[in-house]
Amino acid sequence: MVIGAFNMVMGRRVVIIGVFLLLQVMVMAQKGGESTYSFLGLTNSARVSALGGEVVSLMDDDINLIFHNPALLSKGMHNHLNLNYVDYFAGVNYGYASYGYSVEGIGNFAAGMHYVDYGTFDRTDELGQSMGTFRASEYAMNLVYSRSIIDTFLTAGVNLKPIFSSFEQYSSLGIALDAGVTYHNPRTLTTIGLVAKNMGTQITSYSGTREKLPFEIQAGITQGLAHAPFRFNITMQNLERWDLTYEKPEEGDYNSLGSEAEQSGFDKFGDKLMRHMVFGVEFLIGKNFHLDMGYNYKRRQEMKVNARPGMVGFSWGFGFKVSKFHFAYGRASYHLVGGTNHFSLTTNLSEFYRKQQ
Fold first, then answer.
1. 160-197 CB burial, b ≥16 within 10 A, e <16
2. How far is the C-alpha of 285 from the C-alpha of 288, rounded, in Å?
3. Which has the closest alpha carbon to 171: 133, 194, 138, 199?
4. Short-list 32, 51, 39, 26, CA closest to 233
5. Which distant-in-sequence residues (6+ apart) come within 8 Å of 228 by Cβ?
6. Beta partners for 84?
7. Are strands 325-335 and 338-348 parallel, antiparallel or unpaired?
8. What does the pLDDT read at residue 354?
9. Which residues touch 316 (CB under 8 Å, ≥6 apart)?
10. Would you say 75 and 108 are in contact if contact means Cβ atoms under 8 Å apart?
11. Beta-strand (E) ranges in the chain?
């Protein structure tokens, strides 16, 4: 079924997607820890968090999805409003709010605000004497536009993101752009997505030295089943760089005799490949309830404790609709010390003033 879906996007569609990808890989990629504004990669949506943290090909009327791929913005999100809140680690919390609007013959628009509140910190001098407190926070606007191109199956979208970051007396302004395309075939229940994220620059730096933005290329496929209430997602992250492995020098893979185990070439290839993959599955129970599960291999490999890996890298959640509101909750396990809690609320404002028949 998946192979058949790929064959259907040959010709003009493949040429456009191929050119888009070629243009994006020409942008210099960054490694982890070598870029600024890392908060741009935080997952806001409870649903996306439950599906592994990355989804770029899920075609639905959920306006939360456009944060991950602007080409998922559709006219079905007209007059939709969403609010997200995330209970993160160490007292940090963040969220996202957005609103969508569609204009016939012109396209689809959305505006949103992404924020991170790092909390209040003590300001001290070099002797440790208190000098008051200060706060730290970061913000990014999301100005999204999308429209169908060539035919109704293919959609392109962009997300312009002005950025402001403030840490005590240090602040920075930046600008970033996400650009994506999606191919959706309702007959085969297949959606393919491709997006280049965070292309841009710092306008003003924290201390005079400009840093790179966390540029990333992602692709994904979502496949539904015609006669079963399941929908599967596979998202490929960090396609601009092959080797995503990170190991602390003091940590190794040891066998039962205590000597360091030697990985075969196939094992090394499989590990590097899997670090790009995020898996998710939805169980759709009617129109008003869904269960979500996800697995992020890269997160598990980087955050697990070898002696007790637990459920690190796995995630789960659910969503349901009550009256005019859709609620969602997502839980992602990052470490043995705990995970993150994501809460989402979405509504269609048109339902509040729709005329009664």
1. bbebbbbeeeeebebebbbbbbbbbeeeebbbbbbbbb
2. 7
3. 138
4. 51
5. none
6. 96, 344
7. antiparallel
8. 64
9. 50, 291, 292, 293, 294, 330, 331
10. yes
11. 80-87, 93-103, 107-124, 130-148, 154-167, 170-185, 190-204, 216-224, 230-236, 277-285, 289-296, 314-322, 325-335, 338-348
- For residue 129, give Cα distances in angstroms to 80, 121, 168, 169, 170: 50, 14, 17, 18, 21
CA distances from 138 to 83, 92, 96, 172 (A): 17, 12, 12, 9
> Within a 10 A sphere around the Cβ of 33, how many other Cβ atoms?
8
pLDDT value at residue 101: 97
Query: Among the CATH numbers 2.60.120, 2.40.160, 3.40.395, 3.40.1350, which is that of 2-244+267-351?
Result: 2.40.160
**Contact present, 70 and 57 (Cβ < 8 Å):** no
Judge contact between 214 and 41, C-beta under 8 A.
yes
pLDDT > 90? residue 293:
yes
pLDDT digits (tens, 9 = 90+) for 47-64: 999 999 999 999 999 999
Distances (CA, A) of 310 to 228, 276, 334: 31, 21, 10
What is the structure's pLDDT at 23? Answer: 36
- Mean pLDDT, rounded, of the chain: 85
111-115 average pLDDT score: 97
Q: What is the pTM of this model?
A: 0.84
Judge whether 220 and 183 are in contact, CB under 8 Å. Answer: no
- Which residues does 205 contact at the CB level (< 8 Å), separation at least 6? 172, 211
